[in-house]
Every structure is written in structure tokens, then in C-alpha cells.
Amino acid sequence: MPRILVIAILLIFSLPALAARNILIFGDSLSAGYGIPLESAWPSLLQKELQTARSDYNVVNLSISGETTAGGRARLPQALQQHNPAIVVLALGANDGLRGLPLKEMQGNLEAMVTYARQSGSRVILVGMRLPPNYGPYADKFSKVYGSLAKKLRLPLVPFLLEGVADKQRLFQADGLHPIAMAQRRIMDNVWPALKKEMQ
User: Fold this and answer.
1) How far apart are CA 120 and CA 22, in angstroms?
2) Cα(51)–Cα(57) distance, rounded to whole angstroms?
3) What is the DSSP-derived secondary structure letter of residue 141?
4) DSSP one-letter code for 22
């Protein structure tokens, strides 16, 4: 075999595989797997799904229990720089709502994070949340923040992360706030259609 051909073959097989594009999950305890094994959390299930459906993507889960939109806004620039995600799944706001924080500030923080992500070249999926009815008029205004922001910024929206879970008490841990492992597949399925569309 000619030496030049041998060298060419060796070069081809020594080239590193193309790096997978990152999907950054940026949320709170609902995405961090609070109270359940980490491998059971919905972002981990998403990673397993991608191994067969889209192996050219990789999940980076930087969700933190207790995180607010203000905390996320402070953390996101460094996360974008470090992981250079193709897609950011923004799933924050629940802790703002549970603490009754001003919705105008929450919306401003979410909008700033979308701007940061887009400036870095990332696409963004906004994940909505809802509050229990006992929060009164505030709960209704809270849930509307996501829809209005998605419309304003032309974002793909997952209307409610816990759709199909929130109304089933058996799917929650003793605190009544955090879903059990059995609910994680449904949560992933709520995010998957919007994410799949963004990967096309």
C-alpha cells in the first residue's frame, strides 16, 4: 500500500469524534432531582433518550435547588461561556413565586437570561410554572408571565413543567412540592416535543 495512503488512513482514524452539542438545563430543584437519585431526575432521563434519538447532543444539567431567577441571572453568563450550549432550557421562577417575589423583577430576570443566551449563540426554550390556587390572584398573574414573555421574545414555550403531575398527590414526595422518581418520565415528556423541534 502506498505510504501516502497509509498516512491518510491513519489521520482519519486518529481524528477526534465531533463534539456533541450541549443542551443546558438551567432550573431549580424540580430539575435538580431533589430528594431522588440523580440518575432518576428528568434531565438524566433526557440524556438516556438522546443516546438513542440524537447522540449528537449532550445534556448539561446546572439546576440548583432553591434557585431564583435572580440567582440564575447571576450564574448564567459563566455557564454559557463554560459550556457553549446550542440550546438552553430555562426552567426557573418557581421559587420566586413560592416566595411571593415581585413578578416584574422575575420577568426582567428571565428576559435578561434569554438575551444572554441568544447573544452567546444559543437557542432558548422557556419552561412555564404554576402556583397552587391558594396563592390567589398572584398565582394567575405568575403563570401568565411565561406566556407573555414567550410571545414577546418569540420563544418556544413548555406551558407547564409539571403538566400531568401536579394534580396527582401520589406523584409527590412528603413535602408536597417535589415529584418522586416515578413522575420524572412524564416531566421529561412535557419538555421533549419543544426540545425535539429545536434540534431539527
Assistant:
1) 13
2) 8
3) H
4) E
| Separation in Å, CA 182 to CA 44, 103, 119, 187 | 13, 32, 37, 10
- Which amino acid is located at 153 in the chain? L
Only one residue has cell 444559543, namely 122
Q: What is the pLDDT of residues 155-171, one digit of tens each?
A: 999 999 999 999 999 99
Helix (H), strand (E) counts: the chain: 8, 5
Residue numbers annotated as active site:
29, 175, 178
For domain 20-198, give its CATH number from 3.40.50.150, 3.30.450.20, 3.10.310.10, 3.40.50.1110. 3.40.50.1110
One-letter amino acid for residue 40 of the chain: S
Predicted confidence at residue 200, as pLDDT, reads 81
